[in-house]
Amino acid sequence: MQTHPILDPLTMAGVKMGLERMRGFLATIGNPHLRYPVIHVAGTNGKGSVCRMVGAMLAAQGYKVGITTSPHLQHINERIRVYSGEGPATPISDADLDDVIRRIRDARDRWAQEALSPNEPMPLTWFEFSIAAAFQHFADAQVDVAVVETGMGGRLDATNVVHPLLTAVVTIGLDHTDHLGPDHASIAAEKAGIIKRGVPVVIGPLPKAALSVVRAQARDMQAPSYEWGEQFAGWGSSDGAAHADSSSTEVHVRTTLVDQTTTERSGLALGLPGDHQIVNAAVACQLIDLLPDGLRVSDNAVRIGLAAAKNRGRLEWLAPDLLVDGAHNPDGASTLARYLASLPRDRRRTLVLGGGSDKDIRAVAVALAPQVDRILTTVGTHPKARSPWEVARELEGLMVPVVPSGGLPEALASARNGEDLVIVAGSLYLIGDVREHLGVS
C-alpha cells in the first residue's frame, strides 16, 4: 500500500530524535526487538546495499531473515520484508501490514493514555511507528535473524533500541547536516552511537576525521573493530555495461575471522552494479564472517546471496535509455558520476534532476555535470520537493544548460526523445515517482 490512514497523520509529528519513547512503548508490547538476533547497520551511503547483501546471504543459507530499510520508493510495505530461501525478500502483505499497524495503534493509544502527558498528541513519530511495526512483524514471523538499517542517524535513531550481535558503520558523508552536524566528525559521532559495549563493529572506508571518532567510540565501548584496509578489503572491477542486468564480476574479498585468521573469496559476482558495491560487499562479508556458530553461512551461500542481492532505485536501468539513481548527497552523486564515466559516451545525456528542500541539490548537480550534456529540473510528489524553477535558479553558473521542465511527466516526456540517455537523480522519492509513472512495480 502507498499510504495508510493510521500512519498518514503522523507525518505532522516531524522528526523527534531520542530513544525513551521507543523503549517505553516497546516494553509495553513485550519488546519484540529482543526476540531475535539483530545485525545493525549505519552509514550515510551504502547501508541499504549492505543490509540487502547480508540478508540475501543469510537467506541463501536457509535462514528466515527480517530486513527493515528506508525510505520506501513506492509502497510502505517495502520497509518491512522477510527473506525465506533464495530470491528477493518478500514485502509484508497489505493484510499483514494493516493488521500490525492497527495492533501497534491500539497499543500506542493505551500506552499514551496510561504513561504520557495529555499534551503529547502524537507520542510516536511516523518513523518510530513504522520501526515498531517492523519489529513486531519480525517477532510474529519468528525470523531467525533481523538486519536493521538505521534511519537518519544512529545514536538517537529509533532503531537504536536493539541489542545487536554485530554493528557496522559503512560510510560517513555530508547529509542531514541540520540534524546530525555540519562536518564528518560530528556526523560520525551520531552514526557511531550504534556501537555497543563488547559488540564487534565493522568500519568501512571513512574520512580521516570520521574514522578517528568511530575508532574512539569503539575503544570506549571495548567493541572489537574490523576496519576497511586493515582487517578486511575488497578489490576487482565492475561491469559498467548499459543494461539492466549488469553486475560486478571478478570481485575478490578478504576478511578476518574471530580467531584473527583471514579468508579470501575470489571471482564473486555482485547483483548490484557499480564499483562502490565492492566496498559494500566486503563490509557485508566481514559481518557474515563474524557471526556466531548458530548463524554460520557457507561460501556457496555467500556467492549465491551476493549475486542475488538487489536494491531498486540505485543504478537501476528501467529501460535501455533510462537510468535512475537515488543520489541525493555529494558522495552519492560522485558514485553515480563514476558509474556514468564507465559507460560509453555514444549519445547525448540528459539529467532529470529534482530534490528536497533539505538537500544540497547544487552539490549533486556539480558532481554530475561533467557526465551529462544538459539538465532538466523537475519536481516530485514529496511535500519537501522544490519547484523546478527554484532548483534551476540554484544551478545557475553550471557549465551545462539547465532548463526547468515542470512536473515529472513533462520532464520525462521532454527528455526521452528516442535518442538521449536519460538519467534521473536527486531524490529516492523522485525515483519512486518515476517507477510509479512508468507502472513499474
Overall pLDDT, averaged? 92
Low-confidence stretches: 240-248
Read across the widest sheet, the strand sequence of neighbours is 4-3-2-5-1-6-7-8
| Number of helices, where a helix is a run of at least 4 consecutive DSSP H or I residues | 14
Task: Name the descriptors.
8-stranded mixed β-sheet; 6-stranded mixed β-sheet; Protein-Tyrosine Phosphatase, Chain A; 17 strands; 2 domains; globular
Mind explaining what this structure looks like?
By secondary structure, the chain is α/β, with parallel strands linked by helices. 35% of the residues lie in helices and 19% in strands. It has an eight-stranded mixed β-sheet with strand order 4-3-2-5-1-6-7-8, sandwiched between helices. Strand 12 and strand 13 form a beta hairpin. It starts with 19 loop residues before the first helix and ends with a helix.
